[in-house]
Amino acid sequence: MAKEKAIKELEDLPGIGETTAEKLRAAGVTGLEKVATMSEHDLSELSGISVEAAKKAIAAAIDATTLEYQTGAQVYERRQELGKISTGSKDLDEMIGGGVETNAITEAYGRFASGKSQLGFQLTVNAQLPKDKGGLDGAVMFIDTEGTFRPERIEAIAEAQGMDPKKTLENVIVIRATTTDQQILAAEKADKLIAEKNVKLIVVDSLTSLFRAEFVGRGALGERQGKLNQHIHRLQMLADKHNLAVYITNQVMDNPGIMFGDPTTPIGGHILAHAATTRLYMRKSKEDKRIVRLVDSPSMPEGESIIKITPTGIKD
Ligand SMILES: Nc1ncnc2c1ncn2[C@@H]1O[C@H](COP(=O)(O)OP(=O)(O)OP(=O)(O)O)[C@@H](O)[C@H]1O
Ligand SMILES: [Mg+2]
């Protein structure tokens, strides 16, 4: 068999020269995978090559891209390595399958004062506990987009569990983001810090508020969703790569379209709904009680549990 040159870049495709490749890149077709999923007419139109030539280029691109897979047994093995962080409430832990999982994004949404940030503080402390106490022996990266990170709460929650409050705070890397660019950059540049400090939990409180404030009006919706999408995928990538947990909070908006039931929907639309592995809906109940509803989980049934927000953290 004649050995052909390995196809690695756009230029290596038959019928596509340097100029055509540049043209494609400028149009957002940046790699072989993009070409592999295009129609011959789209490729022909974008590049200026004939439909026939486009057909050949696409076939070559499909040949050159590899399908990455794992066997079910490998996925199973990987899942045995997953870590779980206790929420402080046994009931809530059980409902979500043992705690907030690594390799995944857990989202809490709800109205103001529903306890989203408090749960974030509790997880920030608990992630630092030893593994047999419901933690992951790790550090925490806390991306604060609302200016509501409260070290006093970390201190109080840690102290109540017999932990050294000062050390606990030392183990939290707080990044205050005031623009979506800063927020996105925090995740983009987190790789090195995560490895250096053994970060096992990333909190983003909240994921959506800056996006909501910056991209106003219908016209900005596409850009907002695009950027949010990119940000979430980056967080998921970090979760997979470093076997860490990601906890994000999200506000709700009133949805006047719903006449029966609860007229609130989380911000972020379908992008977030699909990206978050586990979704929790938090509601205020009497006094310090909060109702946490498991809305979406890949392996646990829907359910509700009641937690308490106390001065020393989340309790049953
Ligand atoms: N030291 C404390 N002791 C007991 N309860 C507290 C303490 N600090 C805060 N809380 C309770 O936590 C609630 C606020 O919860 P939290 O800050 O988690 O809300 P949130 O869901 O993040 O709201 P938002 O959308 O405004 O950010 C308050 O209603 C208060 O009752
Ligand atoms: Mg909050």
Total discrete domains: 2
Task: Give the overall average pLDDT.
Answer: 93
Output the radius of gyration. 23 Å
Bound molecules: adenosine-5'-triphosphate, magnesium ion
Overall structural class, as computed from helix and strand content, comes to: alpha/beta
The first-level CATH class of the largest domain is given as Alpha Beta
Proportion of strand residues:
15-25%
Total number of β-strand segments? 13
Question: What's the total helix number?
Answer: 14
CATH superfamily of the largest domain: P-loop containing nucleotide triphosphate hydrolases
The end-to-end span amounts to: 69 Å
Compressed to H and E, one letter per element, the order equals: HHHHHEHEEHEHHEHHEHHEEEHEEEE
Strand order of the largest sheet: 5-4-6-7-3-10-11-12-13
Q: Care to describe what's here?
A:
This protein is of the alpha/beta class and 316 residues long. It has two domains: 11-64, 5' to 3' exonuclease, C-terminal subdomain (DNA polymerase, domain 1), CATH 1.10.150; 74-315, Rossmann fold. Helices cover 41% and strands 21% of the residues. The chain has helices at residues 18-26, 32-36, 40-47, 51-64, 72-80, 90-95, 116-126, 151-160, 165-170, 180-188, 190-197, 209-214, 221-242, 269-275, and strands at residues 84-85, 100-101, 104-110, 139-144, 172-176, 199-205, 245-250, 252-254, 264-266, 278-284, 289-296, 303-310, 313-315. The strands form three sheets. The protein has a nine-stranded mixed sheet with strand order 5-4-6-7-3-10-11-12-13, with helices on both faces. It is elongated, with a radius of gyration of 23 Å.
